[in-house]
């Protein structure tokens, strides 16, 4: 999908968070870069997501609802990648938000070299007994690496909303693997594959993404996160600097209260660190081999995703069939 003069396709995987999705897409519409198209891929949504997308009135945004559920973002994101026909790809999770200069900064960085761009993200939450309001708890550091994801914490390469890439580079990697197809969680697995393929990573220095620090306990998808409406209004109203100052204050407070999660690797000598060192030296996918040897099923992330929605899947659909179904919907 994409006109001949369009530079970038934005892929947005979604499932039954219509109000949040609509707010998220308003930050896409408000970008300083406007030569984009967007594919919103519903993971068999049963709410009014299609109507909410249509209500935005932007013909550049197309909604596709898959006939079967993957139960995780890797499937819909891979469908979106397969449908895209532009030289660049970006991703926007349905509950994250972009500052107006997000695409501009990413495209500028890639124009000077590199295959993949990671923006910095500020992570927020208002869930749990310790939080009486929405608070930003940590921000991704400006200097990261694909190899660093091998033994970094799970949020090291998050969110996918911070990724902008050359389509031909991602085509070399192929689709994202589902949680049950790798010994790593899907995003870290994709980082490992990108590292093995020699993709060149460029990291941004400015925070341009607001990332929902989703938790597994309870039905986390049930809320509409109304507190984020103020942030979007600030960004749309030219008050991004004011919002970033507020984020900086929150990050200081979260660090002082011990709420921030570190981005540091595990201690030297730990099993995870040893596996990562072997993989860096040899390129051998140690996590996959270990999982296969143990006969393990789907990784923990698959269970986490099910706990978020309170649902359980017995099987996942064939990716090729879902790509074909999505193409048929687009016409």
How would the blueprint of this fold be written?
Layout lengths: L7 E7 L3 H12 L6 E7 L6 H7 L5 E5 L8 H10 L4 E4 L5 E2 L3 H10 L4 E10 L9 E5 L23 E4 H7 L12 H11 L4 E12 L15 H9 L3 H17 L14 H12 L3 H9 L5 H10 L9 H12 L1
Parallel strand pairs: 1-2, 1-4, 2-3, 6-9
Antiparallel strand pairs: 4-8, 5-9, 6-7, 6-8
Helix pairs in contact: 1-2, 1-7, 3-12
Notes on the protein architecture:
- With 331 residues, the chain is α/β, with parallel strands linked by helices.
- It has a single domain (8-330), classed as Spore Coat Polysaccharide Biosynthesis Protein SpsA, Chain A (Alpha-Beta Complex), CATH 3.90.550.10.
- The chain has helices spanning 18-29, 49-55, 74-83, 102-111, 167-173, 186-196, 228-236, 240-256, 271-282, 286-294, 300-309, 319-330; strands at 8-14, 36-42, 61-65, 88-91, 97-98, 116-125, 135-139, 163-166, 201-212.
- Strands 1, 2, 3, 4, 5, 6, 7, 8 and 9 form a nine-stranded mixed β-sheet that branches.
- Strand 2, helix 2 and strand 3 form a beta-alpha-beta unit.
- Helix 3 packs across helix 12 (319-330).
- The longest helix is centred in the last third of the chain and has 17 residues, at 240-256.
Features:
331 residues; alpha/beta; Spore Coat Polysaccharide Biosynthesis Protein SpsA, Chain A; nine-stranded mixed beta sheet; 17% strand
Beta fraction of the residues?
15-25%
Q: Tally the beta strands.
A: 9
Largest sheet: 9 strands, mixed
The named CATH superfamily: Spore Coat Polysaccharide Biosynthesis Protein SpsA, Chain A
Architecture per CATH nomenclature, i.e. the level-2 architecture? Alpha-Beta Complex
Query: How would you spell out the order of helices and strands?
Result: EHEHEHEEHEEEHHEHHHHHH
Gyration radius over CA: 19 Å
Structural class label = alpha/beta
Number of domains: 1
- The total count of helices amounts to 12
Large-scale geometry:
globular
User: Could you estimate the helical fraction of the residues in percent?
Assistant: 25-40%
State the CATH topology. Answer: Spore Coat Polysaccharide Biosynthesis Protein SpsA, Chain A
Mean pLDDT: 86
């Amino acid at each position: 999908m994409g006109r001949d003069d369009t530079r970038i396709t934005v892929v947005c995987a979604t499932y039954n968070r219509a109000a949040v999705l609509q707010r998220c897409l308003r930050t896409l519409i408000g970008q300083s870069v406007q030569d984009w198209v967007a594919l919103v891929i519903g993971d068999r949504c049963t709410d009014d997501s299609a109507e909410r997308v249509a209500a935005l009135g932007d013909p550049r945004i197309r909604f596709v609802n898959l006939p079967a559920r993957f139960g995780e973002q890797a499937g819909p994101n891979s469908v979106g990648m397969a449908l895209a026909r532009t030289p660049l790809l970006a991703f926007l999770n349905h509950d994250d938000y972009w500052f107006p200069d997000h695409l501009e900064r990413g495209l500028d960085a890639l124009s000077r070299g590199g295959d993949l761009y990671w923006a910095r993200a500020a992570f927020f939450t208002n869930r749990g007994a310790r939080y009486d309001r929405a608070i930003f708890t940590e921000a991704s550091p400006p200097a990261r690496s694909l190899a660093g994801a091998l033994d970094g914490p799970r949020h090291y390469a998050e969110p996918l909303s911070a990724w902008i890439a050359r389509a031909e580079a991602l085509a070399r990697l192929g689709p994202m693997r589902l949680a049950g197809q790798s010994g790593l969680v899907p995003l870290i697995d994709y980082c490992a594959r990108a590292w093995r393929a020699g993709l060149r990573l460029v990291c941004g220095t400015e925070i341009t993404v607001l990332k929902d620090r989703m938790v597994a306990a309870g039905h986390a998808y049930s809320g509409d996160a109304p507190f984020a409406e103020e942030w979007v209004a600030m960004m749309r109203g030219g008050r991004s600097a004011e919002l970033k100052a507020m984020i900086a204050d929150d990050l200081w407070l979260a660090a002082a209260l011990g709420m921030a999660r570190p981005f540091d690797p595990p201690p030297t000598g730990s099993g995870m660190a040893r596996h990562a060192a072997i993989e860096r030296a040899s390129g051998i996918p140690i996590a996959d081999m270990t999982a296969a040897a143990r006969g393990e099923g789907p990784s923990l992330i698959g269970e986490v995703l099910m706990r978020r929605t309170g649902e359980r899947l017995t099987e996942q659909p064939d990716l090729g069939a879902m790509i074909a179904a999505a193409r048929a919907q687009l016409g």
